[in-house]
Protein backbone atom coordinates (compact mmCIF):
# COMPACT_ATOMS: atom_id res chain seq x y z
CA UNK A 1 0.00 0.00 0.00
CA UNK A 2 2.80 2.44 0.87
CA UNK A 3 4.46 1.70 -2.44
CA UNK A 4 1.27 2.48 -4.37
CA UNK A 5 0.73 5.70 -2.45
CA UNK A 6 4.29 6.97 -2.74
CA UNK A 7 5.06 5.87 -6.28
CA UNK A 8 1.79 6.55 -8.09
CA UNK A 9 -0.91 8.43 -6.18
CA UNK A 10 1.33 11.08 -4.60
CA UNK A 11 2.98 12.14 -7.90
CA UNK A 12 -0.44 12.31 -9.56
CA UNK A 13 -1.76 14.51 -6.74
CA UNK A 14 1.31 16.79 -6.88
CA UNK A 15 1.04 16.96 -10.67
CA UNK A 16 -2.61 17.97 -10.42
CA UNK A 17 -1.65 20.80 -8.05
CA UNK A 18 1.05 21.95 -10.48
CA UNK A 19 -1.33 21.89 -13.46
CA UNK A 20 -3.96 23.95 -11.66
CA UNK A 21 -1.28 26.37 -10.44
CA UNK A 22 0.01 26.85 -14.00
CA UNK A 23 -3.53 27.32 -15.33
CA UNK A 24 -4.07 30.04 -12.73
CA UNK A 25 -0.82 31.77 -13.66
CA UNK A 26 -1.67 31.66 -17.36
CA UNK A 27 -5.11 33.08 -16.62
CA UNK A 28 -3.58 35.95 -14.63
CA UNK A 29 -0.93 36.73 -17.26
CA UNK A 30 -3.54 36.88 -20.00
CA UNK A 31 -5.73 39.16 -17.92
CA UNK A 32 -8.46 36.54 -17.67
CA UNK A 33 -11.58 36.58 -15.59
CA UNK A 34 -11.11 37.13 -11.86
CA UNK A 35 -13.88 34.57 -11.29
CA UNK A 36 -11.80 31.95 -13.10
CA UNK A 37 -8.77 32.88 -10.99
CA UNK A 38 -10.78 32.43 -7.80
CA UNK A 39 -12.14 29.08 -8.97
CA UNK A 40 -8.65 27.85 -9.86
CA UNK A 41 -7.31 29.05 -6.50
CA UNK A 42 -10.02 27.10 -4.68
CA UNK A 43 -9.21 23.99 -6.72
CA UNK A 44 -5.51 24.41 -5.97
CA UNK A 45 -6.12 24.65 -2.23
CA UNK A 46 -8.35 21.57 -2.32
CA UNK A 47 -5.82 19.60 -4.35
CA UNK A 48 -3.00 20.67 -2.03
CA UNK A 49 -5.02 19.35 0.90
CA UNK A 50 -5.54 16.03 -0.91
CA UNK A 51 -1.82 15.82 -1.75
CA UNK A 52 -0.87 16.45 1.89
CA UNK A 53 -3.31 13.79 3.10
CA UNK A 54 -1.91 11.29 0.58
CA UNK A 55 1.65 12.13 1.66
CA UNK A 56 0.78 11.65 5.32
CA UNK A 57 -0.93 8.34 4.54
CA UNK A 58 2.17 7.19 2.66
CA UNK A 59 4.42 8.13 5.59
CA UNK A 60 2.08 6.35 7.99
CA UNK A 61 1.91 3.23 5.80
CA UNK A 62 5.73 3.10 5.48
CA UNK A 63 6.07 3.19 9.24
CA UNK A 64 3.84 0.15 9.72
UniProtKB/TrEMBL annotation:
The chain crosses the membrane at residues 6-25, 45-63. Keywords: Membrane, Transmembrane, Transmembrane helix. PROSITE patterns: HIG1. Residues 1-64 form the HIG1 domain. It comes from the Bacteria. Pfam families: HIG_1_N. NCBIfam families: twin_helix. This is HIG1 domain-containing protein. It comes from Bradyrhizobium neotropicale.
Amino acid sequence: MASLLSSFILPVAAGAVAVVLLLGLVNMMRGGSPDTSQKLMRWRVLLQFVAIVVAMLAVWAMGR
